[in-house]
Design brief:
heterotrimer, A alpha/beta, B mainly alpha, C mainly alpha, A: alpha/beta, Rossmann fold, six-stranded mixed β-sheet, four-stranded antiparallel β-sheet, 10 helices, 26% strand, B: mainly alpha, 2 domains, two-stranded antiparallel ribbon, 73% helix, 2% strand, globular
Chain lengths: 262, 403, 298
């Protein structure tokens, strides 16, 4: 299968510290890949590099919009990466707290729409059409995420679990081909985690969106992912299907070295 | 609440402030005539004043903390003036109609003097709404807003002086000049973090004023430019009184136009992007919003409005000099936005009315005007950061889909 | 050549004052990431207090040396008290508020203090007594480098050294550095963060007062407005050297002092303040992390 994202030899240095060390990763269409590893292994740094928050010190990040067309993304700004089709969520929720739930999702549609200041003032028919398109599209996503009762609620007033879901909904509104989720299950109770499991599976099954997730909840990782990539000290130490990773001695060693409870 | 420990605390606060204000409030020296004046009455005033204020202060701090706790516990608090703030309520239309009638009748009921004051208030409404786009919606603290106002005013004065251009020709030109300077300054500085932006805009505002003050060949220096024509109307020669009324209606027109534009913008794609940028810059970029471009559009649009009002100001006073464009002016406009409510259109309007009319009608107040502005900025931030009327986000009726 | 030396030394004097005020900006910014707009006003209040105290003491016939010491001491105490109080009123309640809030509050405080002094005292320029004595050995060079200029430069160097030692080696200095690095961690290891913030304001304000007394006695007059421009310029110095860095603030102060001195000396004295502001705008655009920092991060 052809990859849609190809990361090769990616290196990221912070002063003397090498957070990513010749890291390789590729993701196929519709694949769910889990990224695990001890704290400080460089998982979030990898996310930041892929989504343009950091400019990597070396290596390539490429996407394949078509089978034989390759686009290198290094150094692009985050909004350009999102426009190209890769969006993320954040480890510690970053919603727009004083905007309504619906508006949060509507921001996701920003890069897929185009009306500017003038057409907004004149409220041209194309601007009106686009606007109602944004509302409808956003509402549909909220419905899918079970958030449709909260549309006009301010985002900061939502319970924690709902905020986590809203963040994914907002990311989905940008029409990505790859969704990067940074610890989506952190802080959720077991029932909510189970719902998340179904939600992520649905996103993949219905829309063929690939998903790369960082997660510490091993139960979720094992049940949901097609492939698990294990990182330590900025390097890939193992990868493979969940069952294989569970028994991999290198992985066990990396985790036992830390006070990490799977 | 009035127990012993509270009184003791307030007494301590009071003593502290007596100590703190002692040299400046009590002693006044005249080094030239070598006289020292002791004003013990002020000491008593400070003592009693700070004693009382410290009670009030603590009460409000407690209220605020209570409110925060409520939010944490998931309770929703109803805003103090929610009724006024609801946009789609049926009251709004009748209220609006009443206001329009009152505004139209105003110059015919009140004197020319009152009309002039009202014109000033309306100008500040427009300036406030313009700055509100930058500070309130996009969250960019612009402390040099007055620079763009000056650009507009000088555009009219100079273009009229050199080329004899009329008010109606320069009004759009002033807007364009404002926007041009906004982009000129905004393009490099909008990459900066928020607090740096504040100080760079402050510096820029001062540069513009200092250049106007010192470049005599260009701007006629501190003596300014006089005999700027009032707004014209083709074929009619106005008397002074008629001109005042005419100007009043022009300003009303501009204010209504501004309200219309801001209302449309804040619920549009661009307006949402501004607010999202204000709320969380990083998340906003990650959701595909171009940070620099979006900020620039807000900054330039705000400057456009300042440019327009600048032209109107020059036409109203018929005389301008750099002294009208000091930092105090920027601070006043910022106070209007902060007092009224950042991001809230009715709030900014009310803010302008309060801050311009209060010193105008309470002469005793005028002396303490600036002291008051400073205090307002601090107190509003500490106790009511959302302003008198908080900005209420639009609610969407989803026909058919919603229960 | 003599003109050049004169400008060079003049720049050094200006730079010293900017450095003294810039330290307050830099320290506060380092710890709570806030541009303390009211800092310029603290400097102005320091100068005013010194003026008032020295006038009263002169009236009661104190000798010159006693006046110098007492006026400076009281001015430093008052500036420190004002700095402390401003923080408690305008910034402490806003610790967890959005970034814009303390900034607006700071501007409010600055406007308030300016007008407080204006209303309680006067809007006129007041003559400031020459507190600093004339040295005999400088008599022949008076037009190039005056006694007060020498005192300004020397005081700055001494204060700088003490401050650096304080921050490097004392317990409170270590606590300050820890707080600047990570407030939460500092709190966890038992540092009283609120106290450290207060101490920072007190030290910064004291330095501003010293700067205020020195420059006022050098120039010979003050009014309620001196803090505003001096504040922006000192902030420029702080940013020039890389905000948060103490040696940076000093270096930035000198660079700004020389820039102004040479630009007004060789180009035009009408635009004295424009040069400073233009430098501020340029440095923020091209090197926002300052001249001392290696990494340029926006």
């Amino acid at each position: 299968m052809n990859p849609i994202l190809d990361v090769s030899n990616l290196t990221m240095d912070f002063g003397g510290l090498r957070a990513l060390d010749n890291f390789d990763l590729n993701i196929a269409k519709g694949e769910i890949v889990a990224l695990i590893g001890p704290n400080g292994a460089g998982k979030t740094t990898l996310f930041n590099c892929i989504t343009g928050m950091y400019a990597p010190s070396g290596g390539d990040i490429c996407i394949y919009p078509d089978v034989d067309k390759k686009v290198r993304l290094n150094g692009l700004k985050p909004n350009m990466i999102t426009a190209k089709g890769m969006t993320r969520t954040f480890q510690n929720i970053r919603l727009f707290p004083n905007m309504t739930v619906l508006e949060n999702v509507m921001i996701g549609r920003h890069c897929r729409t185009s009306s500017g200041i003038l057409s907004a003032i004149l409220r041209t028919s194309s601007a009106r059409k686009e606007e109602s398109g944004i509302v409808e599209h956003s509402y549909k996503i909220l419905e899918k995420f079970g958030l449709n009762d909260f549309v006009n609620e301010l985002a900061r007033n939502l319970p924690y679990g709902a905020q986590k879901r809203l963040e994914i909904a907002r990311a989905l509104a940008t029409d990505p081909f790859l969704l990067l989720l940074d610890e989506p299950a952190a802080g959720l109770n077991s029932r909510e985690t189970k719902e998340l499991d179904t939600l992520i599976a649905n996103i993949r099954n219905e829309e063929k969106i690939s998903i790369l997730l960082i997660e510490h909840d091993m139960k979720l990782v094992m049940s949901i992912s097609d492939r698990v990539v294990v990182m330590d000290y900025g390097k890939k130490i193992a990868q493979g299907p969940p069952d294989e990773i569970r028994l991999n001695p290198a992985v066990i060693k990396a985790y036992l070295g830390e006070e990490f409870v799977a | 609440m009035l127990n012993l420990s509270e009184i003791k605390r307030s007494l301590l606060v009071s003593l502290w402030f007596i100590f703190l204000t002692f040299p400046i409030m009590v002693i006044r020296v005249n080094p030239i005539e070598k006289i020292v004046e002791w004003r013990w009455g002020n000491m008593l005033l400070v003592g009693i004043g700070s004693f009382v204020i410290s009670f009030i202060w603590r009460y409000f701090i407690r209220q605020k903390e209570l409110g925060l706790k409520k939010i944490e516990m998931g309770e929703k608090i109803t805003p103090l003036l929610k009724k006024l703030a609801i946009r789609e309520s049926k009251y709004v239309k009748s209220l609006f109609l009443t206001l329009v009638i009152a505004a139209v009748l105003f110059p015919f009921v009140f004197s020319t003097y009152q009309t002039t004051i009202m014109t000033t208030v309306l100008m500040y409404v427009v300036l406030g709404l313009g700055l509100n786009i930058v500070v309130g919606l996009a969250g960019l603290l612009d402390l040099g807003y007055v620079a763009f106002y000056a650009v507009g005013a000088y555009s009219y004065a100079l273009l009229n002086y050199h080329f004899g251009l009329g008010f109606w020709t320069v009004l759009p030109l002033g807007a364009i000049m404002g926007a041009f300077f906004g982009i000129l300054l905004g393009f490099p500085v909008l990459r900066l973090r928020g607090d740096y932006l504040a100080i760079v805009t402050l510096g820029f505002g001062e540069i513009i004023r200092l250049v106007l003050e010192n470049w005599n060949e260009f701007s006629f220096g501190p003596s300014g430019i006089a005999n700027i024509p009032r707004p014209s109307f083709p074929g009619i020669q106005f008397s002074l009184q008629q001109a005042t009324v005419y100007q009043y209606f022009l300003t009303i027109g501009l204010a209504v136009f501004t309200i219309f534009v801001v209302n449309r913008l804040q619920d549009s794609r661009i307006g949402r992007a501004w607010i999202a940028l204000r709320e969380d810059e990083i998340a906003c970029q990650a959701m595909g919003v171009d940070k620099v471009r979006t900020k620039l559009s807000a900054f330039a649009l705000g400057a456009t409005w300042a440019g327009m009002v600048g032209v109107m100001f020059a036409a109203k006073t018929t005389f301008i000099n750099p002294a009208s464009f000091t930092f105090i002016e920027s601070a006043l406009i910022l106070s209007i936005v902060v007092l009224g409510g950042m991001g809230s259109v009715p709030g900014v309007i009310i803010g302008a009315f309060i801050l311009i009319l209060l010193p105008e009608y309470l002469r005793a107040f005028a002396e303490y005007r600036m002291l008051l502005f400073g205090a307002i900025l601090v107190l509003m931030m500490v106790f009511r950061p959302q302003g008198i009327i908080s900005n209420v986000r639009r609610t969407y009726e989803l026909k058919g889909i919603q229960k | 050549m003599e003109y050049f030396v004169q400008l060079l030394l003049g720049g050094l004097t200006r730079g010293s004052i900017y450095a003294l005020i810039a330290l307050g900006y830099t320290m506060v910014y380092g710890i709570i990431e806030l541009i303390n707009f009211a800092h310029g006003e603290i400097y102005m209040i320091g100068a005013f207090t010194a003026l008032i105290v020295s006038s009263v003491l002169t009236l009661y016939g104190f000798n010159e040396f006693a006046i110098l010491v007492l006026a400076s001491l009281i001015a430093v105490i008052y500036s420190a008290s004002y700095g402390f109080t401003v923080e408690k009123i305008a910034y402490k309640p806003l610790r967890s508020a959005p970034r814009l809030s303390p900034l607006i509050s700071a501007i409010g405080m600055s406007i308030f203090l300016q007008n407080y002094v204006l209303l309680a005292q006067t809007s006129d320029f007041l003559p400031f007594p020459a507190l600093i004595p004339e040295f005999n050995f400088l008599k022949n060079y008076e037009h190039v480098f005056s006694s007060s200029e020498l005192v300004i430069v020397l005081t700055t160097v001494i204060v700088m050294t003490i401050l650096t030692l304080l921050i490097k080696f004392t317990k409170i200095g270590k606590a300050m550095r820890a707080t600047a690095q990570d407030k939460k961690m500092a709190m966890l290891v038992g540092i009283n963060v609120n106290r450290i913030i207060s101490v920072t304001f007190i030290i910064g304000s004291s330095l501003a007062a010293i700067g205020g007394i020195l420059i006022a006695s050098h120039i010979g007059q003050i009014n309620f407005n001196i803090g505003f421009i001096a504040g922006i310029k000192a902030f420029t110095a702080a940013v020039l050297g890389g905000i948060g860095s103490i040696p940076g603030a000093v270096l930035g102060g000198f660079v700004l002092g020389w820039t102004e001195s040479f630009a007004t000396g060789y180009v035009s004295s009408d635009y004295e303040d424009v040069f400073a502001f233009a430098l501020l705008v340029l440095i923020l655009i091209f090197r926002p992390a300052g001249i001392l920092s290696v990494k340029c991060e926006v």
